[in-house]
Specification:
Largest sheet: 9 strands, mixed
Order of helices and strands: HEHEHEEHEHHEHHEHHHHEEEEH
Number of strands: 11
Structural class: alpha/beta
CATH class: Alpha Beta
Distance between the termini: 48 Å
Bound molecules: calcium ion
Number of helices: 13
Shape: globular
Strand content: 15-25%
Length: about 325
């Protein structure tokens, strides 16, 4: 075969086998945006990745109770050029009520938007069901980075397990702990402990056929967002909702761990090697909130769950990717 033909053949072969050609993830971002600020940075990453064409951003659902959540998310979505992105809020009275240091920015004239009250937002599970039903089968990636109220209530809704089985490709969830972290081998992580029953429903009832990738506390703890970036990288707008939220929550002298951002990065770029994966197995949520992982042995037992792992090389790559996706300006 002549050289140029061989080259063409090899290029075609590469293109056909390239994961870049795989269908882009269609993402739903399920967040408890209230207490911690990593949700704000993670939501920004969803916008940046959608702006790059790396994913299709279907909507946001909110899993904790605070009257300003929907308004704040709409303000941030408006900053990032998606003023009409669907937003759903939990109305489950068992969802944790939570004060916030930064949601008040929703009331600032610096961040105009048109969804001003949670009462005007959709109910989260109703929105999740509608978004899922409209998508092709096995095409939706749900990124869940808060308490599991919406995920549990989705499963409990009529036909919910079958809907997840039919439409969802992956659940990328920030919850639990799977390695030594925070000074212990038995860390009780907040997204679990703030709603243990919800997380138990997810761990017990999520369909076996739909993989769950867990980002444990230890992953975000090892990804401290650099405070220098907050100081330097958001000056392209006179007021920046990400910068102001971060400062209201963490102040200028803290490198906030990127717990939620890790689940976004994995969900959209699972094949880029930012993280490793544990062997397959099953997570059980104990009554005290600990997440116990049992590996499948010899092909026996559930293989639904894996958790993220990270080498030091992956740590530096993942952190820089998170920073670059967080500081990326909105599309003009
Ligand atoms: Ca969160």
């Amino acid at each position: 075969m002549p050289y140029h033909m061989m080259r063409l053949f090899l290029l075609c072969l590469f293109a056909l086998s390239s994961p870049l050609l795989a269908e882009k993830p269609r993402i739903i971002f399920d967040t408890d945006i209230t207490g911690d600020v990593d949700d704000v940075l993670a939501l920004t990453m969803c916008h940046s990745l959608a702006d790059r064409g790396a994913c299709e951003f279907l909507g946001v659902t909110i899993s904790k109770d605070n009257p300003l959540t929907a308004s704040f998310v709409d303000a941030q979505n408006t900053v990032y050029g998606r003023p009409d992105l669907p937003i759903g809020v939990t109305r489950d009275p068992k969802s944790q009520k939570r004060p916030s240091s930064y949601l008040k920015l929703a009331d600032s004239p610096d961040y105009p938007h048109d969804l001003n009250r949670n009462e005007d937002a959709r109910e989260a599970v109703e929105l999740l069901r509608e978004l899922l039903e409209k998508q092709p089968d096995h095409s939706v990636t749900i990124i869940s980075v808060g308490i599991a109220s919406n995920m549990a209530n989705l499963l409990k809704s009529p036909g919910g397990v079958d809907l997840v089985k039919k439409k969802v490709k992956l659940l990328s969830i920030m919850a639990g702990a799977f390695a030594f972290c925070s000074g212990t081998n038995y860390h009780l992580e907040a997204n679990v402990t703030n709603g243990i029953g919800f997380m138990q429903t997810v761990a017990n009832e999520w369909p076996e056929e739909v993989p769950i990738i867990w980002s444990g506390y230890e992953i975000g703890e090892a990804l401290p967002y650099p405070r220098q970036s907050i100081a330097r990288d958001f000056g392209y707008l006179p007021h920046h909702i990400v910068r102001e939220s971060y400062l209201l929550h963490s102040g200028p002298n803290h490198d906030r761990p990127c717990w939620d951002e890790s689940s976004v990065l994995y969900a959209v770029y699972p094949e880029r090697g930012f993280f490793g994966l544990s062997q397959p197995g099953r997570v059980k949520v104990l009554d005290d909130g600990f997440t116990r992982f049992t590996p499948a042995r010899g092909g026996k037992g559930s293989q639904r769950d894996r958790f993220l792992t990270m080498t030091s090389v992956q740590q530096s790559r993942a952190l820089e990717a998170i920073v670059q996706l967080t500081i990326q300006p909105p599309q003009p």
